[in-house]
């Protein structure tokens, strides 16, 4: 009874050491190829050279990516620093016109000519900014919208409840994105 209990109770004790470790070294069983042999020096060298090649590829790729990050960061900084360059260059012409208008104001006695010159400068400034994507926000007479308007005060105005009555500061869009909210007076 004792001998049978040992055999049925502990199967691993009856098996060879390789089997008890879960390693199959029997050549007749599929999937056991190469377990009895460690591999030739030629195979090991081949694997080591493949590993070294993969390491070198990884290092090159990592260095390339690092250079890409540096280059794009540098380009971004340059872009930010020169982002207003086009706008400023467009405004330089208006500045020149303003200088000429100032000279005419100091030397001229004809107010109508001075007004006309100043209005031309203002018109040129507006056109220059509009060509860069600036668009004025129309607010007066429209319903108050807190997403685009900033209410400064409310004035009682029968028939104009919730509508913009006056505009203290104009609001502006730049390429259809709000860059300044309109400061308005709202009727209540």
Q: What strand line-up does the widest sheet have?
A: 1-4-5
Mean pLDDT: 80
What fraction, in percent, of the residue positions are helical? 40-55%
Beta-strand fraction estimate? 15-25%
Number of strands: 6
**Biggest sheet record:** 3 strands, antiparallel
Shape by Cα distribution: elongated
Radius of gyration in whole Å, from Cα? 41 Å
Number of helices: 6
Give the gist of this structure.
The protein has helices at 2-9, 11-14, 17-20, 41-81, 85-107, 111-131; strands spanning 134-136, 149-155, 164-169, 172-174, 177-180, 182-187. By secondary structure, it is α+β, with helices and mostly antiparallel strands. Helix 5 packs antiparallel against helix 6.
Characterization of the model:
The chain has 188 residues and is an alpha+beta fold. The chain is built from six helices and six strands, in the order H-H-H-H-H-H-E-E-E-E-E-E. Strands 1-4-5 form a three-stranded antiparallel beta sheet. It starts with a helix and ends with a strand. The model is unreliable at 1-13 (pLDDT under 50).
Reconstruct the topology from this structure.
Layout: H1 2-9, H2 11-14, H3 17-20, H4 41-81, H5 85-107, H6 111-131, E1 134-136, E2 149-155, E3 164-169, E4 172-174, E5 177-180, E6 182-187
Parallel strand pairs: 2-6
Antiparallel strand pairs: 1-4, 3-6, 4-5
Helix pairs in contact: 5-6
What tags apply to this protein structure?
188 residues, alpha+beta, Nucleotide Exchange Factor Grpe, Chain A, domain 2, 3-stranded antiparallel beta sheet, 3-stranded mixed beta sheet, 6 helices, elongated
């Amino acid at each position: 009874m004792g001998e049978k209990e040992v055999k049925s109770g502990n199967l691993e004790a009856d098996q060879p050491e390789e089997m008890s470790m879960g390693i199959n070294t029997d050549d007749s069983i599929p999937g056991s190829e190469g377990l009895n042999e460690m591999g030739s020096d030629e195979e090991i060298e081949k694997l080591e050279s493949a590993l070294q090649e993969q390491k070198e590829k990884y290092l090159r790729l990592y260095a390339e990516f690092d250079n890409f990050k540096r280059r794009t960061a540098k380009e971004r900084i340059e872009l930010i620093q020169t982002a207003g360059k086009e706008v400023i260059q467009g405004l330089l012409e208006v500045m020149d016109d303003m200088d000429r208008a100032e000279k005419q104001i100091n030397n001229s006695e004809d107010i109508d000519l001075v007004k006309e010159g100043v209005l031309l400068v203002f018109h040129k400034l507006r056109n220059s900014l509009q060509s860069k994507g600036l668009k004025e926000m129309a607010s007066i007479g429209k319903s108050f919208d807190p997403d685009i308007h900033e209410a400064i005060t409310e004035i009682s105005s029968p028939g104009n409840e919730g509508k913009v009555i006056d505009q203290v500061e104009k609001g502006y869009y730049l390429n259809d994105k709000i860059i300044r909210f309109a400061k308005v007076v709202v009727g209540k």
